[in-house]
Every structure is written in C-alpha cells, then in structure tokens.
Design brief:
Elements lengths: L1 H20 L13 H13 L4 H22 L13 H17 L2 H21 L11 H19 L9 H16 L1 H20 L5 H16 L4 H18 L17 H18 L1 H22 L11 H76 L4 H29 L9 H5 L4 H11 L5 E7 L6 H21 L5 E9 L2 E8 L16 H11 L3 E6 L5 E8 L5
Parallel strand pairs: 1-2
Antiparallel strand pairs: 2-3, 3-5, 4-5
Helix pairs in contact: 1-2, 1-4, 2-3, 2-4, 3-4, 3-5, 4-5, 4-6, 8-9, 8-11, 9-10, 9-11, 10-11, 10-12, 11-12, 11-13, 12-13, 13-14, 13-17, 16-17, 17-18
Length: about 575
C-alpha cells in the first residue's frame, strides 16, 4: 500500500510538472529540473522500508541539497500540502517518518525525525526564486506540517513493540482491517483533503476551522462501519458546525465549497450514507439521512453566496442545487443497497457452504460407522449364534468362536477410536482401519479383508488386478466388498458360500460379490437400518461409477459395481 500511494503521487507530479515545463510561463523546460529531487525522495522512501534511519538521514540531505539547486537555477516550485514541496516529496517524507518512528530505537528515531523536520522547514522557507509570489507562509507550513507529523506518529508508535503490548497490537490489527475495508473511501477523502489544504493556503489560513471540520468528518466516515447510526449523528453535528461557522470566516471563492458544503464533507456524507444503508437497510436509515439532508440544505442557503453574509434565495439556484443533492443522495443509497444485497448473497453462500460441509461430514461419518463398526459387530453376533448352537454338542467350537468374537470386538473398538479421532478433528473424516492401512496393492488388501471377515460364510475370491489401481478407487472398493460381505452374514439365510470377483475391464474396476443364500425368513442379526445399500450408492456416485444390487437369476444375492480408474475431464 505505501508503494502504491507513492507511485500515484509520482505519476501526478510527472504529469503536472511536465505540463508546467512547456507552458508559456517562465523559461521552457526549466521545471523538469525538479525531477531529480523528486526521484531521489522516492528512492529514499523505498529504502526506508529496510533501513529507516539511514534513509531518513539521506532524505534530509536531499531536501537541503536540492533546495540549494532550486535557489541556484531559480527553478519555479509549486505547493501541495506544504509550500514549495511537491506531492511526491510530501508522501515520501511521511512514509520515511512512519518507518523511522516504527522501526528504529527511540533515541535514533528522535534524532533522525528532528533532522527530517528541520530539513523540511529549510525547503519550505528556501525554495523560491527572484520575483516569485509566496505560495504559503512559514506559520502555515508549521501548522500543516504539525498535523502530518502528529498523525503519522499516532499511527506509527503503537506498533513499535508487538511482544510487549499484545493488546495494543490487536487494536492496531483491527484498525488495519478497518482501513483495508474502507480503502476506496479513504482514497477519495485523501484527494479531497489535499485540495482543501491548498484552499486553506490560498485563503490565508482563514479556512483552517473548516479544514479541521473536514478532517473530523473524514475520520468519522472511515470509522463508521463500527457504529454507523451514531457516526451519522456525529457527522451531521460536525457539518452543522461547519455550516454555521463559515459565514464568520470571511472566506472568498478561493476556498471552494460546492453548494455551500466543502468537498471533503460531501464525500464523507456520501460514504456514510452508503455505510449506513448497507448496515441497517434503507427503512431504518431514513430518519438520519433526512437529518443530514436538512443540514446540507442549511449550509447551501447560508454559504453559497459569498463574500458577505448573503442568503441564497433565488428559486432557480435552489432548485438546481436540490436536484444535484438528490442525485448524489440517490447514488449513495443505490450503492448502499447494492452492497447490502451483495453481503446478503455472500452470507447465504457461506451458510450454504457450511451446511454442505457439515452434511458431507455427517454422511462420511455415517458411512464409516455403518461400514466398519457394523461389519465387526455383525461378525460378533454371527459367531455368538454359532457358539450358542454348537456349544453343547462341541465345546471346542464354542471356545474357538469366543476367540474370534474377542478379535472382532478388539477390531470394533479400534474402529470406534478412529471414528472418535475423526470427529474430534485428529484424523480426517472417513479414515478408519482399512482406509488408514490401505496400500497401493488392492489385491493384497482384499485378501486381508476376506481372511479377517467373521460373517460365518465360506468366501472364495477371484482377483485379477494390476498394481497401479488409484488409491481412492481402491479404498472405495474395499468398502464396497466389506459392506457386501457384512450383508451376506446378516441377510443371506442358509448361505454356504460367497464369491468375490475383482478385475479390471477396459478403464473400469469391476467388482462382484455373490452368495447362494435364500431370502431371509426372519429379522437379520442385529436388525437392519437399511443404510448399507444407500452408503454403497453414495460411494460409487462420488467416483462417477455404476452400482447394481439384487437377486441373482440362479438364487442368492449379487452386488456389482463398476468404478472408473481415470477421473472425468
């Protein structure tokens, strides 16, 4: 941001000075001799970002040395905020002052800032040529220079030591956020204030009270987003004070107040109307906007006719100013409503994104709970039923079943712990025993899954898989086979054998799980939530694949899935 502001000031000076160099006033081209001093100050301002103290000393030398050059060659100068100093020199000096106050030790900062101030005063008092008219007095330069110095130090000093004053730094961060959100308004107010500084010079400092009111109005407008309704009341009071004071300041037309209101206050009023309408809506802002409009009307009647305490009474002039005021007010309200609508849409988009993310997270956890935990619990129930049926006839079978139940319980606990870690944010949603331990070898992972399954049905496999199956596809394939085998144990009544086929055909992974069971005549072990097939369809849909599940022609149940091995374009 400092570099951008400095560049903008440099561009303005390049255009202004070049135009002045070839006009009919004075020797042609002599104004171009101002450029070496301007570019030297730009270099010092950029250097100050790394070596603030050295850059401040260099800038002081540049100001004094180039003052001698201006005097020797009788180079005409022009005034901006400070007499005989270009806008680029003023902006560069403020930035150097800021970095020196922020980044150097207190003693060094005091020394280099004092030197910079003295060099500036030397330039203001010494840059004139024989026969030129003074563009400002030393008193005016000290007044406006004091405002710049105090404002810069006010922003620079609080950020000197972040570690020692964390709360102060937090406030500075909030201020920075406010400034970044208001940068278009700050830019417009900055230009308007620069013009008013010039008007104050031309008026012989008679307009200083109006300038102070304009500065206060600008500050209120920039800080308005925090309390827009109160800010509107404060701005109305400041503008009313400015309107009532102006007739007593003996201002002539050298201090421009379009429609009786200074330009900075017009920009501040428009910006605050935008902020208020954006924050609370038009219906709640009407009363305060009417109050501000009334103050503008009073200012127009009191201060449009100058010099002297003359009231504006011409109906045509009043009508013209009223049309202009209504037009500016309408533009401000329209911008505020547009920004309010955009904020509402943005809020809806964010809420929708949050809802979608929460839904996706819940679905991932639901699938994980159903596929992993239900798989192990189903194995426990099946083994417990077998132990109950065979325990009296063959105790050894019951003992073996108890061992398998223990293993399945341990695996279920491990899966539950992974789910808890996922919900607490320690692991990604959907991570689990197989998704965390899945390798790039899908065939080996499927063998491990089938060998460790406890669904009580003998399972054979036919695996013809390459070694480069994409990890996401392989993880989903594991889940599909796992859920299908779980359903075999729960739903396949009288099943004696199950078959798992996994092969690659073309650009797709083909999965098929079949059994020879019959349709269950009773409620399956542990009940059925009806979410297994839904979860499988969701997993396949995420990979843009296809799923088929239903009774096989020769009896039993068959699940088939086709998963693309390459993502869609």
């Amino acid at each position: 941001m400092p570099a951008v502001v400095l560049l903008a000031a440099l561009v303005f000076d390049l255009v202004f000075v070049t135009d002045a160099a070839f006009d009919d006033t004075g020797p042609r081209g002599i104004d171009l001799l101002l450029f070496p001093g301007i570019f030297a100050m730009v270099f010092c301002a950029l250097w100050a970002q790394k070596r603030a103290a050295v850059a401040a000393v260099a800038a002081s030398v540049v100001l004094v040395a180039y003052t001698l050059v201006v005097r020797y060659f009788n180079i005409p100068t022009y005034s901006s905020v400070l007499a005989h100093l270009s806008i680029t020199e003023v902006v560069a000096g403020v930035e150097i002052l800021f970095y020196a106050a922020r980044r150097t030790r207190p003693g060094v900062a005091f020394a280099v800032i004092s030197g910079l101030v003295l060099a500036t005063l030397t330039a203001v008092s010494g840059r004139y040529y024989h026969g030129s008219e003074s563009n400002g007095t030393m008193a005016q330069a000290m007044l406006f220079g004091g405002i710049l110095l105090g404002g810069t130090l006010l922003f620079a000093i609080p950020g000197r030591d972040r570690a020692a004053h964390p709360k102060r730094y937090e406030k500075l961060q909030k201020l920075n956020k406010l400034v970044m959100g208001q940068w278009p308004l700050i830019g417009l107010l900055g230009v308007a204030l620069l013009l008013e500084f010039g008007f104050t010079y031309e008026s012989g400092a008679h307009g200083f009270p109006i300038l102070v009111c304009s500065i206060v109005a600008a500050i209120i407008a920039v800080a308005a987003p925090r309390r827009p309704a109160d800010a509107m009341v404060a701005l109305t009071a400041v503008m009313l004070l400015s309107a009532l004071v102006t007739p007593f300041l003996r201002l002539r037309y050298d201090y421009a107040t379009p429609g009786g209101v200074p330009g900075t206050q017009i920009v501040a009023g428009m910006g605050l109307v935008v902020t208020l309408v954006r924050a609370v809506g038009l219906s709640k802002a009407v009363s305060r906007i009417v109050g501000l409009s009334a103050v503008v009307a009073v200012a127009s009647i009191l201060n449009t006719k100058r010099p002297g305490p003359k009231l504006m009474t011409d109906p045509d002039e009043i009508a013209g100013l009223a049309v202009a005021a209504v037009l500016l007010l309408g533009i401000s309200v329209a911008v505020g409503l547009a920004l309010r609508s955009r904020d509402s849409e943005r809020t809806q988009v964010i809420q929708s994104a949050i809802t979608d993310a929460q839904t996706s997270e819940r679905m991932a956890l639901a699938r994980e709970l159903h596929d992993v935990v239900a798989h192990h619990v189903t194995g426990i129930v099946v083994q417990a039923q077998a132990a109950k049926m065979m325990g009296e006839k063959n105790p050894q079978v019951a003992v073996e079943a108890m061992g398998r139940i223990e293993d399945a319980g341990v695996e279920a606990l491990a899966a539950m712990r992974r789910l808890v870690r996922s919900m607490r944010g320690d692991a990604p949603a959907g991570s689990s025993e197989f998704s965390e331990q899945a390798t790039t070898d899908l065939a080996a992972d499927l063998r491990t899954l089938i060998e460790r399954s406890n669904h009580g049905v003998k399972t054979s496999m036919k695996l013809e898989l390459p070694s480069n199956v994409p990890h996401e596809v392989g993880r989903s394939a594991l889940r599909l086979v796992q859920e299908s085998l779980t359903n075999v144990g729960k739903h396949a009544s009288g099943a004696t054998e199950a078959l798992v086929i996994a092969e690659v055909t073309g650009n797709e992974l083909h999965l098929q799980v079949t059994d020879d069971g019959q349709e269950p005549q009773r409620r399956p072990a542990g009940g059925s939530g009806g979410y297994g097939l839904i979860g499988m369809r969701e997993r396949v849909a995420l990979l843009h694949g296809r799923l088929s599940a239903g009774r096989a022609p020769g009896g039993g149940w068959r699940v088939e899935a086709w998963l693309p091995l390459e993502g869609e374009e």
